[in-house]
Amino acid sequence: MTRSGLVLALLSGAVLSSAAADDREYQQAQFDYQLHCQGCHTPDGSGADSVPRMKNEVGVFLQSKAGREYLVRVPGSATSALNDKRLASVLNWMVREFAGDSVTGEFQPYSSAEVSELRQQPLNEVDKYRAELLQALTGATGRKQ
């Protein structure tokens, strides 16, 4: 094999390895959502009973710093048994899977460092905070439709 052929083969292997790692992370995030979140938020993100809907709506929160932080600071996220890296992966997975057209700009994925910092201050009055946040972002009441 020529030197350029060897370099190409190594680069191809690195790309495939990276794609496999991305696929494993995606599958782990999906599994973590199924295990830790879908009992209340349902498999498709539509939300059960009085649980807020994520499907086609979660991206609205990414329009502001406070909204982005909210998604980490809600008790289900902040107090989750998932470590920071896996929680960041689940949040990123949820945005990719459920946000739809509600994401209005380029999504900057959550990092484990960001999650680590934000989950130290979980929200207490979640319903009130969410309603005020949605009112500021969209003029909506924040109630589940």
Structure description:
The chain is mostly helical and 145 residues long. The protein has one domain: Cytochrome Bc1 Complex, Chain D, domain 2 (Orthogonal Bundle), CATH 1.10.760.10. The chain has seven helices and no strands. Helix 5 (84-98) packs across helix 6 (112-118).
Mean pLDDT: 88
Q: In CATH, what is the class?
A: Mainly Alpha
Q: Helix fraction?
A: 55-70%
CATH second-level architecture: Orthogonal Bundle
Annotation, overall tally of beta strands: 0
Task: Supply the CATH superfamily name.
Answer: Cytochrome c-like domain
Globally, the shape reads: elongated
What proportion strand? Answer: under 5%
- Along the chain, the helix and strand elements come as HHHHHHH
Q: Characterize the main sheet.
A: none
Number of domains: 1
Concise synopsis of the structure shown:
This protein has 145 residues and is an all-alpha fold. It has helices at residues 3-36, 38-41, 65-73, 75-78, 84-98, 112-118, 126-138. The chain has a single domain, classed as Cytochrome c-like domain (Cytochrome Bc1 Complex, Chain D, domain 2, Orthogonal Bundle).
